[in-house]
Write a structure and sequence with these properties.
mainly beta; 4-stranded antiparallel β-sheet; 98 residues
């Protein structure tokens, strides 16, 4: 079981692939043996999601109705890692234990 923080936000005007200091929404999910998706989604103006994982390895998936699967079809995030990904409006993040 892992604690996974998901934050949607904007990219600075410079378009450097990092999140601006302020984020538009934030949710913490506890991963488990079945896929769990955020209730929040990327809003208009959100261009990036930053995911911080602590407590164990997880797989994540993004999309309008995502399902994370513990295999190579989802993105592996190791314990202690922080990952930033581009998102589209309406995207959510799903997580599952690795």
């Amino acid at each position: 079981m892992s604690t996974v923080q998901i934050m949607f936000g904007r990219v600075p005007v410079t378009k450097i692939p990092v999140m601006s200091a302020g984020f538009s929404s934030n949710e913490i999910i506890t991963s488990g043996a079945t896929t769990a998706a955020t209730t929040i989604a990327a809003k208009q103006g959100d261009e990036v999601v930053m995911i911080t994982n602590t407590g164990g390895n997880v797989y994540i998936s993004a999309g309008s109705s995502p399902t994370a699967v513990a295999d190579a079809t989802s993105i592996l995030i190791l314990d202690g890692e922080r990952v930033s990904l581009a998102v589209n409006v309406g995207d959510k993040i799903a997580v599952i234990d690795a």
